[in-house]
Specification:
This protein is α/β, with parallel strands linked by helices. Helices cover about 45% and strands about 5% of the residues. It contains 16 helices and 5 strands. The two termini are about 30 Å apart. Its main location: cytoplasm. Pfam families: CRAL_TRIO, CRAL_TRIO_N.
Amino acid sequence: MTHLQAGLSPETLEKAKVELKENPETLHQDIQEVRDMIITRPDIGFLRTDDAFILRFLRARKFNHFEAFRLLAQYFEYRQQNLDMFKNLKATDPGIKQALKDGFPGVLSNLDRYGRKILVLFAANWDQSRYTFVDILRAILLSLESMIEDPELQVNGFILIIDWSNFTFKQASKLTPSMLRLAIEGLQDSFPARFGGIHFVNQPWYIHALYTVIRPFLKDKTRKRIFMHGNNLNSLHQLIHPEILPSELGGMMPPYDMGTWARTLLDHAYDEETDYCPESYTLSVQDLERDLEKNMSPKTMKRSQSVVEPGVLKRPDKVKSEEDNMQPLLSLD
């Protein structure tokens, strides 16, 4: 074991070896091979290239050097293309702070049976008068940046649960295709985290409609890890034991305290008053949407429009039966 593997439990070391093909004898060589590719992308400013940083990208792509480098390049390219999103990316930023205090994201204290960290989002908590969707995305990215420092989570990864209970059609109308694509690019294509599952519970019909819009932008691997449980929490519990879930998700733990993770990141700044109006960020959001719309593939959008017109949610003629909604959308590999 090298110093780069310090902090990994024996079980996680074995998992890294078997699942990720991580070899302590070639670790430094693997890292250097990725670093040597940096000269092929002079258009990107690689602001960090130390061993520990590159290692997390190798782990995220199972030590495929080319794929790890592509993820590394996309990580910095995403930041270059969305400069406004990464200005003052701190927990004390007013918009991020408001989102964090409302549980965007929430982070459970217990890991699942595979050692994965569980993030929970209670969608109805989004107070659109106080912060934007971009603030939520910034809060999630900031949280992941903090958690991915843990080498155990680099190997074991994360689980995401989104509870759509009481999430209104009016709230959903703010989730434009361009904003959702921004989130997909930031989380799926540009961040070195392993997501073992994304679970939707209590989702209404208009969330299904939104999913049809964004589905073309999801990789096959991501699609296979998305589960639509509807009101059937039993199917959720088959994959994530209720012993570690809060009562809102049918679990045996107490109700989730939305401020838990916010207090971890904010510490003494948690109770400080902030004066923030999302209108002050509206121009940046509009600019982001405009730029994204320009870059969206017409062919891809045409496929989406055949189901739901971008930016417009139409109720399907026939809503899926609750029994259909209760089944996982796809199975894990």
